[in-house]
Amino acid sequence: MLTRFFLMGLDKKAGVLLTVLAVLAVAVPVMALGTAPDSPWHLSTHTVALLGKYLCFALLALSLDLVWGFVGILSLGHAAFFTLGGYAMGMYLMRQIGSRGVYGNADLPDFMVFLNWTELPWYWHGFDQFWFAAIMVMLVPGLLAFAFGWFAFRSRVTGVYLSIITQAMTFALMLAFFRNDMGLGGNNGLTDFKEILGFDIQAASTRVGLFVATVVALAAGYILASAVVASKLGKVLIAVRDAESRVRFLGYETDRYKLFAWTLSACMAGVAGALYVPQVGIINPSEFSPASSIEAVIWVAVGGRGTLAGPVLGAVLVNFGKSYFTAALPELWLFALGGLFVLVTLFLPKGILGLAAQLRDRLPARATVTAKPADQKGV
Amino acid sequence: MSTEDTLLYLDGVSVSFDGFRALNSLSLVIEPGEMRAIIGPNGAGKTTMMDVITGKTRPDTGTILFEGRTDLTSLREPAIANLGIGRKFQRPTVFEMHTVWDNLELSLKAPRRPLKTLTYSATREDRARIEEILDITRLSPRRDRPAGSLSHGEKQWLEIGMLLAQDPKLLLVDEPVAGMTDAETEQTAHLLKDIAGKHSVIVVEHDMVFVRELGVKVTVLHEGSVLAEGSLDTVSANKQVIDVYLGR
Question: What is the ipTM of this complex?
Fold first, then answer.
């Protein structure tokens, strides 16, 4: 029953994506650990972490596509959920430092010692346990999304107004987390991590392990999102996107459907953030900045909104471009990103995947009226 | 007849928008199984009446009872829909990205809660019912087409089919033949007459030929209240109705 539920969303696109992920999960460990450092096939720890970072962004893009592509909620604050998940993981990693910090205090993280705090704030309790942190990674973004969505959807805030308040939400969080009183490291954030689950966080093998965990999380997120989208619930979500009031008159409480997708998406974004932090080694309030959320929107738009696989591709490609540009032509990156967004909006309204579908349709010269990206097969 | 025997009971319902009285102490009674045609010039309050019954608009004053006991004025749209009131919009509103089949499946009477729809899979009865509705609405050959690719008339029928799938006790149908050819209009009249009997139907329509085709009791609305009620011939002979329709 459950297996059937998870399998029903899988189509050809999913097959390709999952195969690529499976190949990565095998090839990257082999290339990073099984080759000599001077071999042309060798992947440095730095490259592994970079690839891992791309895949974390891909999971964030996937979660954003679930709400933007399928429910029509353009979130300009999705990085908030990502960052909260990241902080939950960061808090666990801080507690693992123990007495190895600069001040050698076994009970308090360095920044608290620096602020002359004498005891651990209540909300830090439990974060020394991995299982607790792992739950919080999803629970904290999930609860915030639930509370936010509850009020926003019940009050029937939609469209650009909703986008603006999501942006306000992430901005407010950024300001809050910048404060030292917040007890989360202020503008320095959380960093100097030593180990995760007892493994040295700098070690090549740990980096490879984190990469594989990210691949697994992305694959699981993709399978879950495809199953949700292919279910009758997913059809209701698309119907809400296209004609919400009609759905209400059919007897569906559309608020609850939106809340379900929104909260699920926030939990997925939280997981992405949690995997991101140990791989980049730091989490600070700048991740909450509106620009981070807007970048995520661009990844989805470039890859193809409402296609699930497209945003994964878009996130990887755009971030690859970003890595290249910021190294080669750093002053041009923002222009390139802005230009990309304009080009995609003007010429590729359905993104790369939509373009691929259009080219495929044009070959046999089929006259279908709607070349829709997310092809929901009936029975 | 007492209130309990009615399917829909409106008494003294008034709605104002920025000082404009869209409904002015409107009173109307629909019996179970009845089909009623509502006519009236533009701005007579026909669509607003549909809005207050289905929960889209809250009346300022007045009582709306469904089946003589449920007060509709305090409920939201989905709750009212689930009581058994279905609505067809003036402009055909179908889910264009979904196939005809999926449009019907979404409308089909089934649990409406998110977790139920997440695990839903169509039963044999569900599929049989959808097939049946596809036949009634003559959309069988179009079942796998996206609803957005249907012609205007086909969309109207699909929407009526969606209402049938909902299996409501009361159907509110807003201008079902607007923009249809004569042949389509005639077919639609047949379709609605088939539906009546098992369901109560309120049809709002401008097209007098179509109303005559239906052959049911007619209510004439004017400036938000009932001007006349009776058979089409009776109301057509009413002097006030003639004045309103033909101008003074």
Answer: 0.90
**In chain A, where the domains are located:** 2-362
Interchain proximity B97–A253, CB inside 8 Å: no
- Beta carbons of B119 and A228 less than 8 Å apart: no
Among B56, B78, B118, select the one facing A228 at the smallest CB separation.
Answer: B118
Counting residues of chain B whose pLDDT is more than 90, the rounded percentage is 57
Q: Does residue A370 carry a pLDDT above 50? A: no
Does any CB of chain B come closer than 8 Å to the CB of residue A228? yes
β-strand partners of B228: B220
Share of chain A above pLDDT 90, in %: 77
**B:94-133 residues touching chain A, CB 8 A cutoff:** 94-99, 101-102, 105-107, 112-114, 117-120, 122, 127
**Per-residue pLDDT at B206:** 79
Partners of A260 on chain B (C-beta within 8 Å) are 114
Interface test with B, best of A250, A253, A258, A377 (most B CBs within 10 A): A250
CA distance A209 to A196: 11
The correct CATH number of B3-246 out of 2.30.30.180, 3.40.50.300, 3.80.10.10, 3.40.50.1000 is: 3.40.50.300
Q: What is the pLDDT of residue B246?
A: 60
**A226 close to B (CB below 8 A):** no
- pLDDT tens-place string over residues A320-366: 999 998 888 888 888 888 898 889 888 888 898 888 888 887 765 54
Residue B186 has pLDDT above 80, yes or no: yes
Q: State whether residue B1 is helix, strand or coil.
A: coil
| Domain regions of chain B by residue span | 3-246
pLDDT at B247 over 80: no
Ramachandran area for residue A158 (φ above 0: left; ψ -120 to 50: alpha; else beta): beta
The pLDDT of A92-105, averaged and rounded, is 92
Q: Could you give the CA distance from residue A145 to residue A9 in angstroms, rounded to a whole number?
A: 25
Number of A–B residue contacts, CB under 8 Å: 99
| DSSP line for A233-296 | HHHHHHHHHHHHHHHHHTT--HHHHHHHHHHHHHHHHHHHHHHHHHHHSEE-GGGGSHHHHHHH
Give me the pLDDT at residue A364, please: 59
- CB distance B106–A238 less than 8 Å? no
CA-nearest residue to B120 within chain A is A232
Query: What dihedral do alpha carbons A309, A312, A313, A319 form, nearest 10°?
Result: 170
Mean pLDDT of B89-100: 90
pLDDT digit string, tens, across residues A257-304: 999 999 999 999 999 999 999 999 999 999 999 999 999 999 999 999
Give the Cα separation of B139 and A91 in Å (integer): 59
- Report the chain B residue with the minimal C-alpha distance to residue A228: B118
Which of chain A's residues have a Cβ under 8 Å away from the Cβ of B174?
none
Q: Who among B102, B119, B148 is closest to A235 (CB)?
A: B102
Chain B touched by A3 (CB under 8 Å)? no
